[in-house]
Amino acid sequence: MDTINEGKLVHVARAAIQSMNGKTIRLSDGATVETDALIFATGWKLSSTEIFKPSLRAELGLPTPLDQYPPADSAYWKSLDSAADAEILKIYPLFSNPHKEIPVRECSDTRFRLFRTIIPPKLAVKNDRSIVFLGNLANAQQATYAEVSTLWSIAYLEGLLPDMIVGNQETMDKEIALTNAFSMRRYAGRGGNRPNALLDIRDWNDLLMRDLGLRTDRKRLSYERSSDSGWGWWGLKAWKKEWFEPYVPQDYRGIVADFIEKANRDSEARKTK
């Protein structure tokens, strides 16, 4: 604390962000800060839209007041949302008959339009890897999801995700619409425009891991790497843990090293072509 108060190493600016331009951040007290990267933590607030104009919110895929949303975008997403909802109902017919006591909660803003609930598709297809939005997915395993989603975001920012995943806006927009449709049906009554995966978070973590090219069977993998391989009795020990024991944060130990190793292999493979 003394180091902070003395202004050494850590410099505290007790003011709000007024605007950002390039590497310059202008604060509400008139001061400016030069930075290579900015982490804007909003705490329990669901979005950081106050620092963006409505037109920029729409471009970034952030919740935007319905009356300020571009008409063309509104019509575009209305069509995608309708098709996605029909597809979700086809896959899960039970959702067609929600409980009568579930309240219907209206929202004055658009939904989040972020691919994987993290990145703006419009920027991704332009190879603009300048911004990500973390923490928007409501879930019941925050510690694990925070690690996996952060690694995914860094891979995106560094251009290490395959173009087949983040290179086509139409594909990403359809995925976004499906995500929102499932969330609205699966967690009807929660209201708001925030995507939910309270009980489905393992599927989300697996999805991000597959994007990264990493194995999702972490318990089985840990046995393969240990002296107790778990392959006795045809691997029943590893199989039992993989399918019948809950996943905990420590099961994802080593994913950063695994991804770095994979990225290095991919880099070497490209050099030999």
Brief digest:
The chain is mainly alpha-helical.
Shape: globular
* Uncertain runs: none
Strand content: 5-15%
Rounded to the nearest angstrom, the radius of gyration is: 22 Å
Q: How many domain units?
A: 3
Strand neighbour order, sheet with most strands:
1-2-3
The biggest beta sheet reads: 3 strands, antiparallel
Number of strands: 5
N→C terminal distance: 53 Å
Number of helices: 11
Question: Averaged pLDDT, please?
Answer: 87
Tell me the layout of helices and strands.
Layout: H1 2-5, E1 17-21, E2 24-27, E3 32-34, H2 54-60, H3 71-91, H4 121-124, E4 138-139, H5 142-157, H6 163-166, H7 169-186, E5 196-197, H8 201-212, H9 218-225, H10 232-244, H11 255-272
Parallel strand pairs: 4-5
Antiparallel strand pairs: 1-2, 2-3
Helix pairs in contact: 3-7, 5-8, 9-10
Notes on the structure:
This protein is mainly alpha-helical and 273 residues long. The protein folds into three domains: 1-38, no CATH class; 45-213, no CATH class; 215-273, no CATH class. Helices cover 46% and strands 6% of the residues. The protein has eleven helices and five strands; from the N terminus they run αβββαααβαααβαααα. It has helices spanning 2-5, 54-60, 71-91, 121-124, 142-157, 163-166, 169-186, 201-212, 218-225, 232-244, 255-272, and strands at 17-21, 24-27, 32-34, 138-139, 196-197. Strands 1-2-3 form a three-stranded antiparallel β-sheet, with no helix packed on it. A two-stranded parallel ribbon has the order 4-5. It is globular and about 65 Å long. The mean pLDDT is 87.
